[in-house]
């Protein structure tokens, strides 16, 4: 193993440690701080940090993590069934199977009327804690989405991102793992829970 490769791996591990214990919130800052701490000019990729973060979560949480993942995926499925009219897709760390303490359930839905999503959630007994519009610029295009924050019965955080109907099915690239952000629809999530409930979806 080359010295530069080993140093980059150590920076990735240090950055992941900062993220896991909440000393940093963003990958970029975590990598820069880790490199500075270790006196390195080598910055790992987001994927390298994410894989180390997954290892640290497994080392610290073990079997409890697996049980929590199954619980969160089941709760995600319950919420997605409430929102079946809006083409829900499970994304984020609960889809990936890379949860850590404090992870939320992230679900994307597609609609031109976000208020109808709120009504469906409230009708299903979901307690809404906050809502907000967010605007981001992607490759010259301005994308607007409506974020709904809630809490599940098991006290897990829940974030639902409502995007315009025309965005359904469009390919998205994951900024952390570098692959396509596919997620799981209702039928796919049901199958995962039946066959391999702790399966991970990460690049090998």
Would you kindly provide a written description of the structure presented here, covering whatever features stand out?
The protein has 204 residues and is an alpha+beta fold. It folds into 2 domains: 42 residues; 133 residues, 2-Layer Sandwich (Beta Polymerase, domain 2), CATH 3.30.460. It is built from 6 helices and 5 strands, in the order αααβαβαβββα. Strands 1-2-5-4-3 form a 5-stranded mixed beta sheet. α1 crosses α2. The chain is globular and about 55 Å long. It starts with a helix and ends in a 9-residue tail after the last helix.
CATH topology of the largest domain: Beta Polymerase, domain 2
Q: What is the CATH level 1 assignment of the largest domain?
A: Alpha Beta
Structurally, how many domains make up the residues? Answer: 2
Tell me the structural class.
alpha+beta
CATH architecture of the largest domain: 2-Layer Sandwich
Number of strands: 5
Q: List unreliable stretches of 5+ residues.
A: none
What order do the helices and strands follow?
HHHEHEHEEEH
Shape: globular
Largest sheet: 5 strands, mixed
Strand percent estimate: 15-25%
N→C terminal distance: 20 Å
- The percent of residues in helical segments reads 40-55%
Give the overall average pLDDT.
92
Kindly provide the radius of gyration, computed on alpha-carbon positions and rounded to a whole number of angstroms: 18 Å
Number of helices: 6
Strands of the biggest beta sheet: in what spatial order? 1-2-5-4-3
């Amino acid at each position: 193993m080359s010295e530069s490769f080993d140093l980059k791996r150590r920076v990735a591990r240090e950055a992941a440690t900062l993220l896991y214990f909440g000393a940093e919130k963003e990958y970029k800052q975590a990598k820069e701080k880790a490199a500075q701490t270790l006196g390195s000019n080598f910055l790992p990729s987001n994927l390298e940090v994410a894989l180390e973060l997954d290892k640290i979560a497994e080392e610290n949480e073990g079997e409890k993590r697996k049980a929590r993942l199954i619980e969160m995926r089941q709760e995600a499925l319950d919420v997605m069934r409430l929102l079946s009219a809006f083409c829900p897709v499970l994304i984020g760390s609960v889809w990936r199977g890379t949860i850590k303490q404090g992870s939320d359930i992230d679900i994307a839905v597609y609609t031109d009327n976000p208020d109808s999503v709120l009504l469906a959630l409230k009708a299903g007994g979901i307690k809404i804690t906050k809502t907000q519009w967010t605007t981001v610029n992607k490759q010259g295009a301005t994308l607007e989405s409506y974020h709904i924050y809630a809490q599940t019965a098991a006290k897990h955080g829940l974030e639902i991102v409502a995007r315009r109907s025309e965005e359904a099915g469009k390919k998205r690239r994951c900024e952390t793992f570098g692959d396509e952000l596919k997620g799981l629809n209702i039928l796919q999530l049901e199958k995962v829970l039946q066959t391999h409930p702790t399966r991970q979806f990460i690049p090998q």
